[in-house]
Amino acid sequence: MQYEMRAEYAEGDSPQDRNARLEVWHMTRVNESTALCGRDLDPAALTQSSDAWGTPAGQPLCHACGALYIHQVP
Ligand SMILES: [Zn+2]
Questions:
Q1: Along the 74 residues of the chain, how does pLDDT read in single tens digits?
Q2: What is the domain extent for residue 67?
Q3: Domain tally for the chain?
């Protein structure tokens, strides 16, 4: 199973906003927009490789996704 990180934006901001503020990164399965924690994310939201997990680029990370991801990855 492949995972990627998908952005959730601050209240009222959308991926189309030039200066959209990042709220938190969630973990999703590749090509899905529903996070492991159950949150529905914008299909247009920014994504990045799950390699960013545990690095500054992946912060802040959704705590629920973090806990779930740990159990999904061998
Ligand atoms: Zn999450």
A1: 799 999 999 999 999 999 999 999 999 999 999 999 999 999 999 999 999 999 999 999 999 999 999 988 66
A2: 3-72
A3: 1
